Amino acid sequence: MLKFSSFIIFFFISFSIKTNAQLVVFQGKVVDKTSNLPISKVLVSFHGKKLYTNDDGKFRLLIAKGENEINFKHISYNSFTLSIFINNNINKDIYLSPKETLLEQVEIKKRITKTDGRLNNFELITNEDLAKKPGFLANPDLLNEIRTLPGVTNGGEGNSGLYIRGGSPGQNLVLFNHSTIYNPSHLLGFFSVFNSTAVRDAKVFKSGIPSQYTGRLSSVIDVSSDASLVDSLQGEASLSILSADANIALPITSNWTVRTSIRKTFMNQSIWPIVNKLSKDRSSINHLEYDFYDLNFSSSLVLSTKDKIFATAYAGGDKFGFELERFGVGNTIDWKNRAASIDWQHQIVKNATVNTTLSYAGYTFNFGLAQEGTAGKINSAIADYDLKSSLKLSLKKHFIKTGFSYVRHRFVPNTADVTVGNVNLDLGGANIYKANESAIFINDAINLGANLSLNVGLRATYYQQSKLSNVDRAEQKDSEYDKLFLEPNLNLAYQIAKSTTLKFSFSKNTQTLHLIPVAASNFPVDFWIPSTQEMPPEKGIQLSLGMFKNWDNGFEAYVDVYYKKMNNIIEFNGGVTNLLDNLTIEDHVFSGSGKIYGAEFFAKKSIGKFDAAVGYTISKNRRIFSEINGGRPFPFKYDRTHDGNVSANYQLNKRWKLSAYFTYATGNAYTVPISRYIISGSIINEYGEFNASRMPVYHRLDLAGHFQIKKTRRFSSELSLAIYNVYSRKNPIFDYFQFNGDFKTSVSVQKKSIALLPILPAISYKISFRK
Questions:
Q1: Is residue 437 a contact partner of residue 470, using CB atoms and an 8 Å limit?
Q2: How many domains are there within the chain?
Q3: Would the pLDDT of 25 be above 90?
Q4: What is the Cα gyration radius of the chain?
Q5: Of 14, 118, 247, 613, which cross-links 197 as Cys (Cβ 3.0–4.6 Å)?
Q6: Distances (CA, A) of 686 to 327, 631, 672, 676
Q7: 168 shares its domain with 204
Q8: Mean of per-residue pLDDT scores for the chain
Q9: Same domain, 168 and 82
Q10: Where are the alpha helices (DSSP H) in 182-333?
Q11: Is the predicted pLDDT of residue 21 greater than 50, yes or no?
């Protein structure tokens, strides 16, 4: 670590930094997205300078190297702000959407993702990308789009987690306008908390995570809302059998725009009665109830040419319940996310900008279980207060981002309440944990020549934790733990040919927060706890090497191989019911290590009205715990040897657009009994190798059609038809074993599977308008 840190410091000292910015040429053509015709008289503005496109829609800018924001405005088209990092001369076509379509994004022909020659090591997903997939029952969703990326998988039907390059859901940092979202999912993973109308774009980092982000071992998903200004009232709304949502953008002044969006489901009155009727065969969940809501608010204010303020707030909640009649079991779960942030962007000089953000994140989770007169509840909560500030500096051969952050955490992992009959059990007071994270960071993107670019970064974090026991309403300090961590990262890009780039990344990450894994549950069980002396931070190293290529005919592809090693990862010793006695969690976990390696393959092609993408991942994910499986390596529960998907879109005519999505994956690993004994009238199971068996292969086909009913300058409407799980594949969420017969004669054992959703058709209606 010391050698690597010295190497990075040497890099920063040895490269001379000049303050005069070198100019490069950024040119292209602005085109109507629907007709492909050039647009003249488009106002192009940057750094206080303005020019218009000519009669052929062309523009040519002399612009400083580094990160730039370029604005495109026209009275008949939606305004657009392009944020782009430029190292060399670049030619790029910009596609604007006519205002009557009210799309808030533009399409750039060349994907600004890992396939270009720059040091971007993230996948970019825009609002427009979301509309291209069938979605769950005709509802587009960000997390479902992320799951189509190579190296990303979910845990199967009914599992809301994202497993990225072999990591667990708790190892993903999910941000929404700078605030942490601890559970980004609704409806067991079918919906995310990100209402698609409130999302501008999302950056997904799977490797080489930049130093400005708080430590996580697997990934960062950075989601942003639209912060642009509008010049008139705009909005859209949709209605389906599942939900209704609405989004409004209102200009207060020419420099101030506010937006609000709301989404509310009514599935308890529509879809669940149908599913419950189809579940009377007792091989599925017999009764389901579920609904959720989302509320977003944002305010964009331009104070001057050098100052912008963007404020956002989010509130969302879920309430879920199910019954298994065979076992007389009832389960209720509800969870809530709260987030708010205010961001101030100030341009000091032409090539230097400061961003300062104050944010709040809150999450509560309540789990209830009832069986035969006994009812238990577990409540959990976490709250964060976060301040960070960063300086972006664009120089001749360097693009530097440096700054600091401070986070104050408060955790109440598991507060239990148990009632037996009419008696409420006294389980003691709640355990409260507090933690502080103070960090400084620096990243430097260095241009080493025409074909070689380097990005090096370092984050230093000082972590403090204390535990408080709530005894007779008086908080008493129980223990304290503090540590200093260094997290280096490196990204290297070498352009082999004009459209072929070789990219290498290395990162060493530390994670100070733990999500307690309850292996027996496939439903959300979110119990967060900070690192302690008994449960030290998780640590990981990742290496990746990939080749990325673009062709002039619109075809792009990449192959990326990776290796990841993790230490101090945890497993909870018991099931969710073991959390019902307000136990000290750190005394009931196993600590171990993990190794993951794999290869990702991706290809995409656009041919006229048709475009398609194929993603495939082959990987191996092994864990080692001295207390599990005799200390021998075993597969992670969500190890997927094979994971692939295919998506396709076809513009049939001006009104009809068709889409399809197919996914296929190896089943989850689990442990099965290999023999059984009857002792004193009870059946005793003897289990085989840990996680040595597999659930059935997961696969599913979704289809959708979108029909444009009406389209005018001020109003448009669209009808969507979708079919989820077209051939009604019964993808089980878990297996159980049913015993039949008499202990005195013979007993037969049958394996049964619990499936969640059969084939489900849906219809939705969407309108867009402007004043």
A1: no
A2: 2
A3: no
A4: 27
A5: 247
A6: 22, 18, 9, 6
A7: yes
A8: 82
A9: no
A10: 271-277
A11: no
